[in-house]
Amino acid sequence: MSTVAGGGHRLLACDLDGTLLDSGGRVTDAVAAALARARDAGIALAVITARPRRDVDAAISARVPDSAYWAYSNGAVIHCPEGADGADGAGAPQRVVGFAPDQVARIVEAVGGAVRGVVRAAVPAVPGAAPGAAPGADGEPGGPWSCALDLVDRTVTIDPFPRQASRHWNHVERRASAAGLVLDQPVPKVLVHTGTVCDAAVVARVQRAVGAQAVATASGGAFVELVPPGTGKSEALKWICARLAVDPSAAVAVGDGLNDLTMLDLAGLGAAPANAPEQVRLAADLVLPSNDEGAVAALVAHLLGPVTS
Fold this sequence. Notes:
Rossmann fold; eight-stranded mixed β-sheet
Protein backbone atom coordinates (compact mmCIF):
# COMPACT_ATOMS: atom_id res chain seq x y z
CA MET A 1 0.00 0.00 0.00
CA SER A 2 1.15 3.55 -0.61
CA THR A 3 1.44 6.26 2.01
CA VAL A 4 -1.95 7.63 2.96
CA ALA A 5 -3.45 10.59 4.73
CA GLY A 6 -4.12 10.35 8.44
CA GLY A 7 -0.66 10.78 9.94
CA GLY A 8 0.68 7.62 8.31
CA HIS A 9 -2.08 5.41 9.68
CA ARG A 10 -2.90 2.75 7.10
CA LEU A 11 -5.45 0.49 8.79
CA LEU A 12 -8.48 1.23 10.98
CA ALA A 13 -9.76 -1.75 12.99
CA CYS A 14 -13.10 -1.30 14.75
CA ASP A 15 -14.96 -3.30 17.34
CA LEU A 16 -18.66 -3.63 16.53
CA ASP A 17 -21.00 -3.57 19.54
CA GLY A 18 -20.56 -0.54 21.76
CA THR A 19 -18.14 1.05 19.30
CA LEU A 20 -19.11 1.04 15.63
CA LEU A 21 -22.79 0.51 16.50
CA ASP A 22 -24.88 2.87 18.60
CA SER A 23 -26.92 1.55 21.51
CA GLY A 24 -29.75 0.77 19.10
CA GLY A 25 -27.47 -1.56 17.13
CA ARG A 26 -27.18 0.77 14.13
CA VAL A 27 -24.37 2.17 12.02
CA THR A 28 -25.41 5.81 11.94
CA ASP A 29 -25.18 7.97 8.84
CA ALA A 30 -22.27 9.90 10.34
CA VAL A 31 -20.31 6.72 11.09
CA ALA A 32 -21.05 5.22 7.65
CA ALA A 33 -19.86 8.42 6.00
CA ALA A 34 -16.71 8.42 8.14
CA LEU A 35 -15.87 4.85 7.14
CA ALA A 36 -16.28 5.77 3.47
CA ARG A 37 -14.09 8.81 3.99
CA ALA A 38 -11.35 6.71 5.57
CA ARG A 39 -11.54 4.23 2.69
CA ASP A 40 -11.34 7.03 0.13
CA ALA A 41 -8.27 8.39 1.93
CA GLY A 42 -6.53 5.05 1.41
CA ILE A 43 -6.98 3.67 4.92
CA ALA A 44 -7.81 -0.04 4.97
CA LEU A 45 -10.74 -1.08 7.16
CA ALA A 46 -11.43 -4.04 9.41
CA VAL A 47 -14.27 -4.94 11.76
CA ILE A 48 -13.17 -7.27 14.56
CA THR A 49 -16.10 -8.49 16.65
CA ALA A 50 -17.02 -11.12 19.21
CA ARG A 51 -20.12 -11.97 17.20
CA PRO A 52 -20.20 -14.92 14.81
CA ARG A 53 -20.86 -13.96 11.21
CA ARG A 54 -24.41 -15.33 11.23
CA ASP A 55 -25.37 -12.86 13.96
CA VAL A 56 -24.26 -9.76 12.05
CA ASP A 57 -27.35 -8.50 10.28
CA ALA A 58 -27.10 -7.59 6.60
CA ALA A 59 -28.36 -4.12 7.48
CA ILE A 60 -25.17 -3.64 9.49
CA SER A 61 -22.67 -5.06 7.01
CA ALA A 62 -24.27 -3.07 4.18
CA ARG A 63 -23.26 0.15 5.94
CA VAL A 64 -19.59 -0.85 6.02
CA PRO A 65 -17.51 -0.46 2.83
CA ASP A 66 -17.13 -3.64 0.78
CA SER A 67 -13.35 -3.32 1.05
CA ALA A 68 -13.39 -4.09 4.78
CA TYR A 69 -12.00 -7.23 6.36
CA TRP A 70 -14.36 -8.91 8.84
CA ALA A 71 -13.03 -10.91 11.79
CA TYR A 72 -15.66 -12.76 13.82
CA SER A 73 -15.73 -14.73 17.08
CA ASN A 74 -13.09 -12.50 18.68
CA GLY A 75 -10.98 -12.71 15.56
CA ALA A 76 -10.90 -16.49 15.18
CA VAL A 77 -12.78 -16.47 11.86
CA ILE A 78 -11.63 -13.95 9.24
CA HIS A 79 -13.26 -13.13 5.91
CA CYS A 80 -11.28 -11.13 3.38
CA PRO A 81 -13.09 -8.69 1.10
CA GLU A 82 -14.02 -9.98 -2.33
CA GLY A 83 -11.14 -9.48 -4.72
CA ALA A 84 -8.49 -9.60 -2.00
CA ASP A 85 -5.62 -12.01 -2.49
CA GLY A 86 -6.81 -15.42 -1.32
CA ALA A 87 -10.52 -14.59 -1.18
CA ASP A 88 -12.43 -17.31 -3.02
CA GLY A 89 -15.59 -15.32 -3.77
CA ALA A 90 -17.75 -18.07 -2.24
CA GLY A 91 -17.97 -16.54 1.21
CA ALA A 92 -15.61 -19.02 2.87
CA PRO A 93 -13.38 -17.70 5.65
CA GLN A 94 -9.67 -17.36 4.94
CA ARG A 95 -8.70 -18.03 8.56
CA VAL A 96 -10.33 -20.29 11.15
CA VAL A 97 -8.70 -21.13 14.47
CA GLY A 98 -10.34 -22.81 17.41
CA PHE A 99 -10.36 -25.44 20.11
CA ALA A 100 -10.05 -29.11 19.14
CA PRO A 101 -12.93 -31.38 20.27
CA ASP A 102 -10.95 -32.89 23.15
CA GLN A 103 -10.06 -29.41 24.39
CA VAL A 104 -13.73 -28.42 24.34
CA ALA A 105 -14.63 -31.45 26.45
CA ARG A 106 -12.03 -30.49 29.06
CA ILE A 107 -13.24 -26.89 29.14
CA VAL A 108 -16.87 -27.92 29.61
CA GLU A 109 -15.77 -30.22 32.44
CA ALA A 110 -13.76 -27.42 34.05
CA VAL A 111 -16.75 -25.11 33.93
CA GLY A 112 -18.81 -27.90 35.48
CA GLY A 113 -16.25 -28.13 38.24
CA ALA A 114 -16.75 -24.45 38.93
CA VAL A 115 -20.49 -25.08 39.13
CA ARG A 116 -19.86 -27.65 41.83
CA GLY A 117 -18.13 -25.03 43.93
CA VAL A 118 -14.51 -25.07 42.80
CA VAL A 119 -14.84 -21.42 41.81
CA ARG A 120 -17.63 -19.15 43.04
CA ALA A 121 -18.39 -15.58 42.00
CA ALA A 122 -19.16 -13.09 44.74
CA VAL A 123 -20.99 -10.60 42.51
CA PRO A 124 -24.65 -9.64 42.10
CA ALA A 125 -26.82 -11.80 39.85
CA VAL A 126 -28.43 -10.23 36.79
CA PRO A 127 -31.68 -10.94 34.93
CA GLY A 128 -31.44 -14.03 32.73
CA ALA A 129 -29.37 -15.98 35.21
CA ALA A 130 -29.66 -19.73 34.86
CA PRO A 131 -32.17 -21.58 37.05
CA GLY A 132 -30.63 -22.49 40.38
CA ALA A 133 -28.42 -19.43 40.58
CA ALA A 134 -29.88 -18.31 43.90
CA PRO A 135 -27.36 -16.99 46.42
CA GLY A 136 -25.78 -19.50 48.75
CA ALA A 137 -25.67 -19.29 52.52
CA ASP A 138 -22.64 -17.01 52.35
CA GLY A 139 -24.36 -14.64 49.94
CA GLU A 140 -22.44 -15.85 46.88
CA PRO A 141 -24.24 -17.11 43.79
CA GLY A 142 -24.42 -20.89 43.93
CA GLY A 143 -24.30 -21.40 40.16
CA PRO A 144 -24.66 -23.00 37.80
CA TRP A 145 -22.35 -21.75 35.11
CA SER A 146 -23.11 -23.10 31.65
CA CYS A 147 -21.51 -23.22 28.20
CA ALA A 148 -22.33 -22.49 24.59
CA LEU A 149 -20.01 -23.53 21.76
CA ASP A 150 -19.64 -20.93 19.03
CA LEU A 151 -18.92 -22.86 15.81
CA VAL A 152 -18.54 -21.40 12.33
CA ASP A 153 -21.96 -22.63 11.18
CA ARG A 154 -23.99 -22.77 14.41
CA THR A 155 -24.02 -22.29 18.16
CA VAL A 156 -24.45 -25.32 20.41
CA THR A 157 -25.83 -24.56 23.88
CA ILE A 158 -25.46 -27.09 26.68
CA ASP A 159 -28.04 -27.15 29.47
CA PRO A 160 -28.55 -25.35 31.76
CA PHE A 161 -27.54 -22.55 29.36
CA PRO A 162 -30.62 -20.28 29.55
CA ARG A 163 -32.76 -20.10 26.42
CA GLN A 164 -33.45 -16.43 27.07
CA ALA A 165 -29.76 -15.66 26.68
CA SER A 166 -29.69 -17.15 23.16
CA ARG A 167 -33.11 -16.02 21.97
CA HIS A 168 -31.73 -13.55 19.40
CA TRP A 169 -29.05 -15.86 17.99
CA ASN A 170 -29.29 -17.61 14.64
CA HIS A 171 -28.77 -21.34 14.01
CA VAL A 172 -28.84 -22.53 17.62
CA GLU A 173 -28.66 -26.23 18.52
CA ARG A 174 -29.69 -26.96 22.11
CA ARG A 175 -28.41 -30.05 23.92
CA ALA A 176 -29.14 -31.46 27.36
CA SER A 177 -25.47 -32.34 27.84
CA ALA A 178 -22.17 -32.54 25.99
CA ALA A 179 -22.31 -36.35 26.03
CA GLY A 180 -22.37 -37.74 22.50
CA LEU A 181 -21.65 -34.38 20.89
CA VAL A 182 -19.57 -34.93 17.75
CA LEU A 183 -17.57 -31.94 16.54
CA ASP A 184 -16.11 -32.09 13.04
CA GLN A 185 -14.63 -28.59 13.04
CA PRO A 186 -12.64 -26.31 15.35
CA VAL A 187 -14.62 -24.36 17.94
CA PRO A 188 -13.50 -20.73 17.68
CA LYS A 189 -15.05 -19.62 20.96
CA VAL A 190 -16.75 -21.00 24.06
CA LEU A 191 -19.21 -18.78 25.92
CA VAL A 192 -19.62 -19.20 29.67
CA HIS A 193 -22.89 -17.89 31.09
CA THR A 194 -22.23 -17.00 34.72
CA GLY A 195 -25.50 -15.31 35.64
CA THR A 196 -23.52 -12.23 36.63
CA VAL A 197 -22.27 -9.03 35.09
CA CYS A 198 -18.97 -10.09 33.56
CA ASP A 199 -16.49 -7.56 34.84
CA ALA A 200 -12.76 -8.13 35.17
CA ALA A 201 -13.17 -9.95 38.49
CA VAL A 202 -15.59 -12.49 37.03
CA VAL A 203 -13.36 -12.98 33.99
CA ALA A 204 -10.50 -13.74 36.38
CA ARG A 205 -12.61 -16.33 38.22
CA VAL A 206 -13.48 -18.11 35.00
CA GLN A 207 -9.82 -17.97 33.99
CA ARG A 208 -8.87 -19.72 37.21
CA ALA A 209 -11.50 -22.38 36.54
CA VAL A 210 -10.24 -23.27 33.05
CA GLY A 211 -6.54 -22.70 33.67
CA ALA A 212 -4.02 -22.43 30.85
CA GLN A 213 -6.13 -24.33 28.31
CA ALA A 214 -8.06 -21.17 27.33
CA VAL A 215 -7.89 -17.40 27.58
CA ALA A 216 -10.88 -15.73 29.25
CA THR A 217 -12.15 -12.30 28.24
CA ALA A 218 -15.47 -10.47 27.90
CA SER A 219 -17.20 -8.03 25.60
CA GLY A 220 -20.04 -7.13 27.95
CA GLY A 221 -23.25 -8.69 29.19
CA ALA A 222 -23.48 -11.99 31.04
CA PHE A 223 -20.90 -13.97 29.06
CA VAL A 224 -17.26 -14.72 29.61
CA GLU A 225 -15.65 -15.64 26.29
CA LEU A 226 -13.00 -18.35 26.07
CA VAL A 227 -10.59 -18.47 23.13
CA PRO A 228 -7.54 -20.66 22.49
CA PRO A 229 -4.20 -19.38 23.80
CA GLY A 230 -2.42 -17.32 21.16
CA THR A 231 -5.66 -16.12 19.57
CA GLY A 232 -7.96 -13.17 20.12
CA LYS A 233 -8.45 -9.77 18.56
CA SER A 234 -4.78 -8.83 18.62
CA GLU A 235 -3.88 -11.96 16.66
CA ALA A 236 -6.60 -11.16 14.12
CA LEU A 237 -5.21 -7.66 13.76
CA LYS A 238 -1.70 -9.08 13.26
CA TRP A 239 -3.03 -11.44 10.57
CA ILE A 240 -4.82 -8.65 8.70
CA CYS A 241 -1.77 -6.38 8.99
CA ALA A 242 0.39 -9.12 7.47
CA ARG A 243 -2.06 -9.57 4.59
CA LEU A 244 -1.90 -5.86 3.87
CA ALA A 245 1.86 -5.51 4.49
CA VAL A 246 1.06 -2.96 7.19
CA ASP A 247 3.13 -2.73 10.34
CA PRO A 248 0.88 -2.81 13.43
CA SER A 249 2.40 0.52 14.45
CA ALA A 250 0.58 2.03 11.45
CA ALA A 251 -2.76 0.58 12.57
CA VAL A 252 -5.47 2.29 14.59
CA ALA A 253 -7.77 0.17 16.75
CA VAL A 254 -10.91 1.23 18.58
CA GLY A 255 -13.02 -0.80 20.99
CA ASP A 256 -14.96 -0.67 24.24
CA GLY A 257 -14.59 -4.17 25.71
CA LEU A 258 -12.13 -6.11 27.81
CA ASN A 259 -11.66 -8.33 24.75
CA ASP A 260 -10.39 -5.27 22.85
CA LEU A 261 -7.50 -4.56 25.22
CA THR A 262 -4.88 -6.63 23.39
CA MET A 263 -5.90 -5.07 20.07
CA LEU A 264 -5.64 -1.55 21.49
CA ASP A 265 -2.21 -2.38 22.90
CA LEU A 266 -0.93 -3.78 19.60
CA ALA A 267 -2.02 -0.90 17.39
CA GLY A 268 0.06 2.22 17.00
CA LEU A 269 -2.97 4.18 18.20
CA GLY A 270 -5.54 2.60 20.49
CA ALA A 271 -8.82 4.41 21.09
CA ALA A 272 -11.86 3.77 23.28
CA PRO A 273 -15.32 5.35 23.28
CA ALA A 274 -16.46 7.13 26.43
CA ASN A 275 -18.93 4.32 27.18
CA ALA A 276 -16.09 1.81 27.65
CA PRO A 277 -15.33 0.63 31.20
CA GLU A 278 -12.61 2.47 33.07
CA GLN A 279 -10.04 -0.28 32.54
CA VAL A 280 -10.39 0.07 28.77
CA ARG A 281 -10.40 3.87 28.79
CA LEU A 282 -7.23 3.92 30.88
CA ALA A 283 -5.51 1.56 28.45
CA ALA A 284 -6.40 3.68 25.40
CA ASP A 285 -4.19 6.36 23.90
CA LEU A 286 -7.28 8.35 22.97
CA VAL A 287 -10.74 8.52 24.54
CA LEU A 288 -13.51 9.41 22.10
CA PRO A 289 -17.13 10.47 22.51
CA SER A 290 -19.47 7.56 23.23
CA ASN A 291 -20.80 5.17 20.61
CA ASP A 292 -24.09 7.08 20.73
CA GLU A 293 -22.18 10.26 19.93
CA GLY A 294 -20.41 8.88 16.86
CA ALA A 295 -17.18 7.54 18.37
CA VAL A 296 -15.82 6.17 15.09
CA ALA A 297 -16.79 9.32 13.19
CA ALA A 298 -14.87 11.34 15.78
CA LEU A 299 -11.88 9.03 15.39
CA VAL A 300 -11.81 9.45 11.61
CA ALA A 301 -12.04 13.23 12.06
CA HIS A 302 -9.08 12.99 14.46
CA LEU A 303 -7.09 11.08 11.83
CA LEU A 304 -8.06 13.07 8.74
CA GLY A 305 -9.19 16.40 10.12
CA PRO A 306 -12.73 17.78 10.21
CA VAL A 307 -14.94 17.44 7.17
CA THR A 308 -14.89 20.61 5.08
CA SER A 309 -17.78 21.59 2.86
